[in-house]
Amino acid sequence: MKLGIKMILVLTSIALVSGLLLSYTYQSTKADIERNKEIEKERAIKVVIPGTERFEEKVINVKNYLLVAYDKDDNLIGYAMLTEGTGFQGPIKLMVGFDTTLSKITGMEVLENVETPGLGNRIVEDWFKKQFKGRLTPIGYVKGKKPENPHNIQAISGATISSRSVVKIVNDAWKLAKKEIKK
Amino acid sequence: MKKHSLFYEFKKGLVAENPVLVMLLGLCSTLAVSNKAINSVAMALAVFFVLFFSSLIIGIIKNLIPDQVRIPSFILVIATFVTLADLFMKAKFPAISKALGPYIPLIVVNCIILGRQEAFVSKNSLIASLMDAIGMSLGYFWVIVLLGIVREVLGFGTIFGYKVLGSWFKPWLVMVLPPGSFITLGIFVGVLNWLRAKGGKA
Amino acid sequence: MIQKAIIIFLAAALTNNFVLTYFLGLCPFVGVSERSSSAIGMGFASTFVMTMTAVIAWIMDWLVLRPLHLEFLQTAVFILVIASLVQFVEMFIKKTSKELYKALGIYLPLITTNCIVFGLALIGSMKNYNLLENIMLGFGAGMGFTLALVLIAGIREELEFRNVPEPLKGAGITLIVVGLMALAFMGFSGMVTL
Q: ipTM score here?
């Protein structure tokens, strides 16, 4: 019985100390972690909609945010979607920029992914991301050759699934953005 | 039990009782994050942090812990330091934290850490435990970083992101993929065994 | 929905085999995988614990941690859940079935510190699955682990009679064999897509 009480006492106090220490660290690192996310977001929107000076953010749902971009003279220059979908190995988080009519993509940036290094992970390579610039919505993909249709991009050889996932996430984001802007 | 000098407790982790190549502990983190040298360095530092402080705390409180709840208590202490390391990396080094993905939380079940607490810290003095922790971390460090360098050179043609092989080099994709990781580590184990056998005879 | 659950099962067992692509659960590979019979025992004990973990970790994650915004305690909570679950399963089997305890008992303590169980809890949480999907992930990952463990054990039994270079005997050749197996399993990728 005495041992039982000692066991509970020891475990509880370790758990208590650990909980307190972690809550304290979490509180003190929270600001930094949030700021890193903001910096990342700002960097990404300037890549996908060049010339963005400031943006307004609208929450569509937990995984999708619509960012309305303005240039330095406060003219509307485009919309960007911060969006997340499923890739081959796990979630892929993207920022996609559209022009003001949502008919053309102005750029795409990969924020987070856990695709296979060397294969699916090549979606972060510049040649792949740059292809999205200027594509007409909705987009599609072709394998093994240069695309002729202005809607299509070329999939990464050996990583069709990851390429297809990116295309799907971009199209889903485009549909959401269209619905949101019509409102 | 035979008493060893503090220097011996430090030195043994480097080669003779190397946690990865000889005791085969902590393989999952070693194999998973070593596709680039920089990831290896970050992982090794995180492991060092967790191993050192867990050994310190457990070395201090071990006499207060009843035997029956030894493992849960150890795991709780380790989990606390792992979460601290995770939060710290997220706040200060977001890029590396992203690259290491879910492998930082996995340090909790890295057998090196719990294994050392069980096998060494619970039976030895605090100072000896800390020497052991530093030695083991260094042993882990050189293996994972060397593995990272070999895989990065052959898989990307770079070291720490700098190009070292010219454009004639066609990257061996397999080296960055899981199979390359297993095979390279297997060869490492073989080479170390071979060197030790040779050293033993001489 | 049923279809998605089946796909998750197949993906966890074959294309994204936890051992061969996430490097999880390697410690028993080098330790236990020398005999096929013990490999099967270890495999099934782990599958059972992993399926249970998938349920309990999901409940803790979605009904406790996320509503209370305590995600940063995830690591500590998951590992405690697994440790107590394994202890509980061990006690339960000991009371109910002597034979089952004899068969699985010795593997249970090893499972607590097996990273595959903890990795499963983390990966499941990362993928935002619902409860059914998470169970399929746990079950599939467990079966995939069993499959890989049994295959390796079979090869190792054969290797004992082969002329392996002295320094590579044991761990070295096992790792190389696992590497070749990982290469073979890559052939499954593309077969199942999410």
A: 0.80
